[in-house]
Design brief:
This protein is mainly beta. Helix content is about 5%, strand content about 50%. It is built from 1 helix and 17 strands.
Length: about 270
């Protein structure tokens, strides 16, 4: 298995999110207006914090949604499992009686943690440049807001990440090699730390929002990374702002997989 398929396989084992919306004063997503063929760069707040790239398409027969999200836990319902991580999503869309988009959205059936959107409603601004979505998951409400997506300047391929895990009062220095995934503004991360192997994803929004999800496994020697079993990986995620001038960012919302009460703070320096 190559590195790309391995990393995607690790990510797809751990994630979940959801949407739903309304705003009767805005224009609908309309194929005639070109909105239905655009990719949107969306900020996510609420039960999750993160970013999404969603494409609404209409070929005259099928109206489809494809895309991907990368999220950290936010203000979710107490006692519910709050999803985090990166996952690819897909769905279909149509119109309701008020000429708004209605849709469903979910991720791959094999994903352990579900990302099922049962009711998605969307509207765009009158000038058709901004999109707002709001919705609900089993663990709380979400809001999506943003604009038409664009390719951003490429990020450097070497990152230093300082991770502070407040629950255990441990600090880790992690060094990553980073490469473009082939999807818009999404990066693959492969890294090392003291007796740890690391893989992950980073998604950058043109609002300078950066979402990082990292899975780690403890090993005696980093050369043993290829032998790590899938069940031995544990994840954490963080969300914050990246200063594109200094290429530094502070990310301070996140969780370790299996326990969303464990907060994680990251300091990211790119060179």
């Amino acid at each position: 298995m190559n590195k790309k398929s391995f990393i995607v396989g690790v990510w797809l084992a751990f994630v979940s999110v959801l949407f739903f919306v309304s705003n009767s004063s805005a224009a609908p997503i309309s194929p005639s207006g070109g909105i239905g063929s655009k990719t949107w760069d969306l900020k996510i707040t609420g039960a999750n914090y993160g970013a999404a790239y969603l494409t609404f398409s209409d070929n005259g027969t099928d109206r489809l949604i494809t895309g991907y999200v990368n999220v950290a836990p936010g203000r979710g319902i107490e006692g519910e499992t709050i999803a985090f991580g990166m996952t690819y999503v897909y769905g279909q869309w149509s119109y309701d009686g008020k000429n708004r988009v209605i849709a469903y959205l979910n991720n791959e059936p094999t994903d352990d943690v579900r990302f099922d959107v049962t009711n998605l409603v969307g509207v765009v601004s009158k000038n058709q440049t901004k999109l707002t979505l709001s919705g609900q998951t089993t663990y709380g409400k979400l809001k999506f807001s943003g604009a038409v997506a664009a390719a951003l300047d490429a990020l450097p391929d070497l990152w230093t990440v300082v991770v502070n895990k407040k629950e255990s009062e441990m600090t880790f220095v992690e060094i990553f090699s980073v490469e473009p995934s082939g999807d818009l503004n999404l990066y693959y991360m492969t890294g090392w730390a003291a007796n740890r192997c690391l893989v992950g994803s980073a998604l950058l929004s043109k609002l300078n929002d950066l979402v990082v999800t990292i899975f780690e496994a403890e090993v005696p020697d980093s050369s043993d990374c290829a032998d790590v079993a899938e069940g031995d990986w544990k994840g954490y995620s963080a969300y914050g702002k990246l200063n594109l001038n200094t290429l530094e960012g502070n990310l301070n919302i996140g969780a370790e997989e299996g326990d969303t009460s464990k907060k994680v703070t990251m300091r990211v320096v790119m060179e």
